[in-house]
Inverse folding.
């Protein structure tokens, strides 16, 4: 029972594509790595295709969608191209991120007050595909009511600030996240989290963030796999997520 409530691990395989693209061939094979992540216990696979296809390509997204058995989560900025991809692929979950095309990685959540109308229309369109929708959000309780009004099912809390403050003081680092999560739970939103999560800061988040359902982790997990191997690394992340 307790195990059933542990947050799910969705492995972001973008970094695998970055390594593959460095040499132009198909090594490592993104699909094979994703299938192995599932085989080793990951409960989901995440990709973040960007318009320049510098890591995950649109063809990878199609390949993954027809072959993986766990939850497929596609993140990205809802450009017309992205929305058409979603309509073709019909993933289980779509996570909307407000990142402009050339940023290195996502660096902020949505301003759900300013962009409420845009998000509402976008989310209604995505929901016609049957996907669950999540929106990337800074841990600010003031954004929760307008997030709820967009029609999203979940929020993904942007954990960069948590991760960067964790070593100094975990309780202070998590406090705004707990406030945002409680506000989200009160209005019936589900809660995901992601960005800069690793084997040092993950267990504390899993134990202390109310209602956490899923984390998506890429960079640190792939770095850890260099030392521990992919199978051990996934086991270590699953162990960190176990709610006691
Ligand atoms: N969530 C979102 C919205 C992201 O953009 C990313 C990075 O692509 C992640 C989670 C995963 O972050 P990390 O690679 O630091 O684990």
């Amino acid at each position: 029972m307790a195990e059933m409530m542990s947050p799910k691990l969705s492995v972001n395989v973008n970094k695998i594509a970055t390594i593959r693209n460095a040499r132009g061939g198909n090594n490592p094979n993104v699909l094979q790595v994703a299938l192995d992540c599932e085989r080793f216990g990951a409960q989901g696979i995440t990709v973040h295709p960007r318009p320049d296809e510098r890591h995950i390509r649109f063809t990878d997204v199609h390949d993954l969608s027809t072959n993986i058995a766990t939850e497929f989560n596609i993140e990205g900025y809802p450009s017309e191209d992205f929305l058409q991809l979603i309509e073709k692929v019909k993933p289980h979950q779509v996570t909307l991120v407000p990142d402009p095309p050339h940023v290195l990685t996502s660096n902020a959540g949505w301003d759900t007050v300013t962009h409420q109308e845009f998000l509402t229309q976008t989310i209604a369109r995505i929901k016609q595909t049957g996907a669950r929708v999540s929106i990337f959000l800074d841990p600010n309780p003031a954004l929760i009511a307008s997030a709820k009004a967009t029609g999203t099912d979940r929020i993904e809390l942007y954990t960069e600030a948590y991760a960067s403050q964790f070593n100094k003081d975990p309780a202070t680092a998590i406090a705004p996240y707990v406030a945002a999560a409680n506000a989200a739970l009160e209005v019936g939103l589900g809660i995901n989290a992601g960005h800069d999560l690793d084997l040092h800061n993950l267990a504390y988040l899993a134990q202390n963030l109310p209602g956490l359902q899923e984390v998506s982790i890429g960079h640190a997990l792939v770095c850890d796999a260099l030392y521990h191997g992919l199978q051990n690394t996934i086991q270590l992340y699953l162990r960190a997520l176990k709610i006691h």
Observations:
- The radius of gyration is 17 Å.
- The beta strands are 8-12, 44-47, 71-76, 93-96, 132-137, 154-158, 190-194, 212-217.
- Residues 12 and 165 are 23 Å apart (CA to CA).
- The chain has one domain: 8-241.
